[in-house]
Sequence to fold (941 residues):
Amino acid sequence: MTSAPLYVGIDLGTTNSTAAVFDGEKVTLVRNAQGSPITPSVVRIDARGNVTVGARARRFLDTDADNTRSEFKRLMGTAQGIRFQGAGVERRPEELAAEVLRSLRADVRDQIGVLPARAVISVPALFELPQTSATSEAARLAGFERVELLQEPIASALAAGWTVEDQGGAWLVYDLGGGTFDVSLLETRDGLLRVVGHDGDNFLGGRDFDWAIVDWAIAQAARDGVVIRRGDPAHAGAVRKIKLAAEEAKIELSRVESASITVPGLDVAGAGYDLDVTLDRETLERLCAPAIDRSIAVCRRLLQAHGVADGGLTRVVLVGGPSVMPVVRRLVSQQLAVPPAEGLDPMTLVAQGAAIFAATAGLEARPSAIEAVRGAKVWLQYPAMSSDLTPHVVGRLVERTGPVNSVPTEVQLGRADGLWDSPWTPLDEEGAFVLPVSLVPRKPNVFRLTGKNIQGNAVTIDPPTLTIVQGLTISDPPLSRTIGVALASNDVRVYFERGAPLPARRTFTLHTVDSVARGAEKAVIKIPIVQGEYEQAHLCRLVGALEIGGKELKQTLASGAEVELTIELDRGGRMSARALIPAIGQVFEHVAHLLVPEADPEVLASTVTATRARLGELRTDAFRRQARDSIERLGKVESALDDVGRDIDAARGGDTDAAQKARRTLIEVDAQIEAVELDRRWPELDREAREALIWTTGWVQDYGQPHEQTLYQETAKAVDKARQGRDPLELQRQLRLLRRLGSSAYGRHPEAWKHRFEDAAADVGNATDVARAQALVKEGREALAKGDNEALRRVTQKLWQLLPSAAEDRRKGHESGVR
Amino acid sequence: MSQKPDDFEALADNPFYVLGLRPDCSRIDIEREGQKLLGMLGLKLKSAATYMSPLGPRPRTEDKVRAAMAALRDHEKRLAHEFWASLPPPAAPPKPPPIPETKGPGPAPFAGAFAALGWRRS
Fold:
């Protein structure tokens, strides 16, 4: 066992997986039993229940497909069971991912001599919450006691940043994996690596190239009069074999000009057929171009969102197996006018970055790396990796009592090379110290921590040493999608805006819509947690729900009761939620339904039909308005719906992954249609903005505080900018702020609460608890008579909590039980 | 979706106040001070538990420090925060509490922040 630090990073990929270790200076790839650093993400369970992983399993993909599975990463977070016919067992996607992780963990043990207990595992930046949660579960099943998840583009950037000397400027990480595409815009300055933003497509990858080749090969077969259908279960075996051959030809064409796709003895619905066609590089490039164009469009969208003009990038780092293809490198480089970074291995960069990140997170892989030391115990806080040459080490004594001789009163830090020592520093009244240390660049720096007691005698400190690697500082990763709670009004209460730094935690007080009787089995208050950028909850993705059931309640919960809901996200985007009900002092923590929804082909097909009808109406309207942007956007929607149709056919043939892809595309289609709707609503929105400017100006001018008036001016400018740029989402956002400022100023009008109370009192007949609402109205009238404005405010706010939400809004708001 | 932090909170949570830095600080100052404060908060040290704002002392949390660091790393956001952090103080600012003593070497950021805001220690 070596004494150098050991950090493990794992790239758990759709097609292949890799492990790497970092010792503070250099990264080493971990080789598997076959001597390769790349392990195919393939699992086989034979009839006797024996499990095989990697290249040995991959060999059976075409000959024993019923017992050999790949690409399960794309199903992570779904309830989809994966069946192994021979053994008669079913496994969840995360259980299969755990097999791959277990295999990589064993490879680390074989090569390094340590079975790692902690590691960093990479996940796509646009993984949704259920998918990250499933990845953590896979790690737990594989025997890791602690893992951190890291977004793949950050891992790539970290590895590239560690390797490349000239680090300044804005750069792009273009990560085209087997099944997902991620692109990240990064900026490196003064050793700080910052993720400016990212974008991507959860269902775009090298696999799309494979399918394009398969479709081409099927078309070639059709010339021989052989009809092979991807959606037909009877042709599933033949299609699988063609796909494997297509994949091989694609890889070969990265080196040569033409390759043959030869599959003898194909079984096409009982008839035999020998497929033998030649694919040249030019045809391959033509077939792959639409998918590459899609990826470049995503890059442009990201650059545009962050105001990076053409030529504003210093380099692009290409990551992922498919990015080895010359056509990908050429088109990306040409169209984005940026040179690709050379000398980086696209296949292993993510794993290398994950290992480096394990160092920044202080995630030492050894189960008990630090031996127990007898001495004064000190809690320490310091950056395990830092770009700063003089970062701080903060420490605090765990116990400040004990024999005087064993309690330190002064501490000193000394670098192990003997070339730097801190001054002796007295501990403060909390038994703490804050010391800057001096680092040697690009090295792991070991420091000894020593202490002196009040008599000036040496005291042993536990831990006696600490290590800081000088390198890059990585900024907190930004959240890829806004997360909030769906309310009964179909609005979203935003907890974390897109781009918020992780980890993050936030608490808001919500109010229940209905009362729930203690013990009532079927009564449940549902708190839906959604992810997405839209104002209305139904357009956002439901990613979890916290349920408060009558059965678990200690007391009956009144309508309008307070619920303090805390949502917490860790650096890898894992979510946990906790609801405290102060009135009864009870806490609920179980987040239910943390799953990607099932994608039933028939449900998907009926959604397509409904979407096409909506598309028709919008198109007629767009033509009438001569709205060129909308017409163009709807054209793309139509083409996406055609893709969905093909995926539904494939799903009917048993391809569960295609069903998920169709589901996802439909969500994106919905968002596109919503954008067209917003565009159609633009004149109305613009009018609302003008009206809001008029009424708020007066109130803020007359009743606003000076800082509100300053903020108002800024907001009014932002409203103008959004109007000029015709940006409906931004205009809606600024309008909210404008109205809030206006409303806040209006609240200082002497009659404001009287008017608000009268409005609420007029609706009392519809309250969820009429008796309580009537009592509140009575209370309010008394306050009004006494001129007690404060009491009137309290009563009115309580009354608001009892007013009903429209049933339709509530249904759309994922049946939310809170407001 | 009208639940962004209160305007007052936004003013008091200006990243420069949270980190106890002046608007003209360097990028490395932000990283160094942020990392130090995160360490101190991680060890629950009282000397890091509050910060001064024009609205009086405010509790400092790890979340606030992380958000402040993220905001100041972004050039555009930093510019906006510099504007707010350099505004004159309110007409009748609350009396600031005594400045906590800081131990060890490193910048003493609070004193400069007060001077920039026009306050005088009594």
User: Anything to note?
Assistant: The radius of gyration of chain A is 30 Å. Chain A has a mean pLDDT of 85. The longest helix of chain A spans residues 281-305. Chain A touches chain B through 55 residues (CB under 8 Å).
